Amino acid sequence: MAEIQQQASGGGKGGKKRAKKMSTKIDMTPMVDLAFLLLTFFMLTTTFSKPTVMQVTMPVKEKDNKDPTVLKASDAFTVLLGENNKIYYYEGLLDATTKPELKLSSYDANGIRKTLLDRRRVNPGTVVLIKPDDKSKYKNMVDILDEMNITDQKKYALVPISKADEDLIKSSGL
Amino acid sequence: MVDLAFLLVTFFMLTTKFAPEEAVVVDTPSSTSELRLPESHVITIAVDKDKRVFFGMDDDEIKADLLKQVGAKYGVSFTAAQVQAFRGVASSFGTPIEKLPALLNLDSEQRKSYKQEGIPSDSLNNQLIEWIVTAQSLSRKQFSKPAYIAIKGDGDADVPTVKKVISLMQDKNINRFNLITDLETKPVAGK
């Protein structure tokens, strides 16, 4: 690539000696090499995109919660996140007198998402209560929050799991 | 072609921003959210799968003040060299304040192999919230807006730790969080 300018063989005519013309060609190879090296370096080290975030706004913690929001049992839909990536749900509220039927679901498209959409078609005012078990993974929590975004469920709340809910999971044997 | 190469070199040189040193490997879960994390004024709280909590802050302007203020609260003082070293460490660290001077004395190679135990965040010794509140108030003073709080949890992190961090901040009236996730394509909701 690097060219060596051949000395023009001395003319035989022996005319006037002219100032020898310098070649205008510069060898660019090393510079181009360097350019590509830098290009590769910056391309590989650059951070392509910022990670995405999911916004969560939690309610303001009341110092003394005298009258918490009362939720109608007919609007309530509870999702329980269990260990080993299990997910359960029941409709209505759990209290001393009524014991709703617990059902096992899954995180895929035909699981909880379908249930949620069906439920919303019946009752558009559904409020989803998400109760992550202490043994559930953070991934599960993100997944279910994501599910809320996908199904466009506006009203949902992250609620600490109660003893009764844990017992319900245990006794159901699912 | 060479012109193009140089154009690209210039482009990458100007746009590149070196990824900050992460003290902990966190494998974030994915979500369909398309919101991007802002470039600056971000406080990152990382939770790894061993329940360790890490704190990170990216604004160079307030790092020195942050270190001094939190140090003063716990009666730990830092030398000028340590404050300087904190600039590199502040993007993510997880040591209790008592052990921070020791971490800052190490050089960057040794720091990588140093086992960080996580910032204490229990009710007896709650240094995490101290870092957050101080960083938040400094950010308010410096940039006249509060920092953006991002929680970077590992997919295998347990819920109680993440919830504890969230409820700590709720106690301090910080109610807006951002969970850092990877992008996944949005499935079509419906039939």
From TrEMBL, chain A:
Principal localisation: membrane
A GO term for molecular function: transmembrane transporter activity
Bilayer disposition of the protein: Single-pass membrane protein; Single-pass type II membrane protein
Keyword tags: Cell membrane, Membrane, Protein transport, Transmembrane, Transmembrane helix, Transport
Record's keyword annotation contains Hydrolase: no
Single GO cellular component term: plasma membrane
Cellular location(s): Cell membrane
Source domain of life: Bacteria
Family the UniProt entry places it in: Belongs to the ExbD/TolR family.
Protein name, UniProt field: Biopolymer transporter ExbD
Protein's organism: Hymenobacter fodinae
